[in-house]
Amino acid sequence: MKTIDEVIFRMDLIVAECTSRESRMGYFAILYRQVTIRIKEGILRNEFEDNPRMEKLDVIFAKRFIDAYEAYQNDENLTLSWEIAFDACSRNSHIVLQHLLLGINAHINLDLGIAAVETVEEKNLDTIQNDFEKINQVLSELVDSVKNNIGKISPLFRFLIQFAKGRDEILVNFSIKLARDGAWKFANEYMLHANKKECIHLRDQVIAGLAEGLINPGKRLNRLIGLISFTEWRSVSNTMNQLNQITKHT
């Protein structure tokens, strides 16, 4: 893939595959496809500091998700962060928001920093920071829209989540801003690291730990999640359709 249109086409295929298989992997795919569409619109409006470079960043960034998705389908090696996120999709005990955050966790906390470095190659990484942050801004706006409209998918979410306390609030307080800041710090570490493969492995272990925290956020919140999950759409494809409508109207 070399263009953002090719990325969108591949994302369309993934969404269609997930819809036909009733796969929860489609939840993040729908969200991320809309991020890609928004980035394309921004490029066409010349919203970024370097629009051709933004397209390059978007393609490299998206390819990490697409490659992970395809590797998982083919039982090939992939990062632990994505493996945990995809494994969770086979279970109906997790709510839609958990699946979205697991995807965001792997893609922002691990993939984005790598993509930024690969985009600038040997150039100054600081030159891409503003456009790096704009990708996160687009994603953050979409996630906020999903949270604000979560009642369409999870009728009891807003009522029950108020009972979450302390560290159990990791699920609702997952911060795109903190993820972005951590991703930028990692990008700088990755840029300077002599052993890129080792750097990715070490970072992956840390982000996989965050994924485990999203899956098992504590006994209290796990009980609440169990109740919320009973009120969500039972059909994955129907949930995907509702999620698609929410993201399109942000």
Automatic annotation (TrEMBL):
Pfam families: DUF5995. This is Uncharacterized protein. It comes from Belliella aquatica.
